[in-house]
Amino acid sequence: MRVFQIEGEWGIDNLKISTRPDPKPGPGQVLLRMSASSINFRDPIVPERAYGSQSGNLPLIPVSDGVGDVIDVGAGVTRVKVGDRACPAYFQTWISGEPNANRLTQSLGGPLDGTMSEFMCLSEEGVVKVPDYLTNLEASTLPCAALTAWSALVECGRIKPGEQLLIQGSGGVALFALQFAKMLGARATVISSSDEKIERLKHMGADATINYRETPEWGKAARALTDGRGFDHILEVGGEKTLPQSLRCIRPGGTLSMIGILSGGAMSTSLGLIITRQVKLQGITVGHRDGLEAMMNAMAQHQIRPVVDKVFDFAELKASFNYLKTGAQFGKICISHDR
Ligand SMILES: NC(=O)c1ccc[n+]([C@@H]2O[C@H](COP(=O)([O-])OP(=O)(O)OC[C@H]3O[C@@H](n4cnc5c(N)ncnc54)[C@H](OP(=O)(O)O)[C@@H]3O)[C@@H](O)[C@H]2O)c1
Predict the structure, then answer these.
(1) What is the model's pLDDT at position 269?
(2) Cβ of 38 below 6 Å from ligand 1
(3) Domain Enoyl reductase (ER) spans what residues (predicted)?
(4) I need a surface site. Which of 99, 251, 300, 303 has the fewest CB within 10 A?
(5) CATH superfamily of the domain spanning 157-283
(6) pLDDT level of residue 271 (50, 70, 90 thresholds)
(7) pLDDT tier for residue 54 given thresholds of 50, 70 and 90
């Protein structure tokens, strides 16, 4: 089968198209013919062994997110059948419940082989059937970015209708958060770097927006949008530079979901506000398989379509990584395995 893999030594230059023997499903396993993948911030840095021993061993097939057609199943498989489409879950052994060390380490695209492969052979417990209304490209975006937004707002955040949410940026996770907020009847304020993206965010239902390039001290302006009360929830993607602003506009008792550290990973803020405002600071790391299934059911009920920004050919994986690094995207960057 055709694969992309990091071979020989770590480093993006050693990420190449190669071949491996075709897999065959054993008992309890499912064979997928992959049709699409989508990329996340983590994927271009795994080839550089950015996650240390957590990156896995070589050769390694990169990329965590994708979708495929079920073309064969091993004995005893009941969760899917031949002809279904399925997404591999990001964490293969986190089925439900609380995270633990094992559940948080068995992730696709490092240390486990990822989706940039013609076929994937996985435990049936590690896949979720995809609703019919989604295209392959749309479905490929769900396992990491969408589930992270779902876990932050629904599974852990328990967001309620009428509550106020602040979302940072217009990347993959942020747009799913906006869609889920609207689905759940919450009020969404989004901050973004560009007026052009802000127009698109308004079309998607953003109730209020702030250009954070024009208003770097956006915390105060954001608080004013809530009549001074503050936000019930904040989806924190920036980290170092954004957390001080978020602490200025979270309400007492509000929930700050830390999902990214795009502006830096060190704490450089007055931590006292977390205590005096009794802020719930919750780290989110993707989520479990049952969450992915519940999220897909909710999306199907509301016919929510992921926003696909740009599609690259299979052979253009490195070009897709370079595009991701520009930050120009609005939503998800996908790879078609058919091209
Ligand atoms: N915890 C998890 O499980 C998990 C899962 C997925 C991703 N992540 C992390 O979450 C972050 C976002 O992921 P993604 O896939 O949504 O990325 P993405 O699609 O590449 O989107 C990034 C967007 O974030 C916005 N942004 C960048 N710096 C910002 C800042 N200082 N303040 C506000 N917005 C900023 C920009 O939007 P504008 O141009 O509109 O400003 C940018 O386009 C990454 O750090 C990623 O590693 C974490």
Answers:
(1) 74
(2) no
(3) 11-335
(4) 303
(5) NAD(P)-binding Rossmann-like Domain (3.40.50.720)
(6) confident
(7) confident
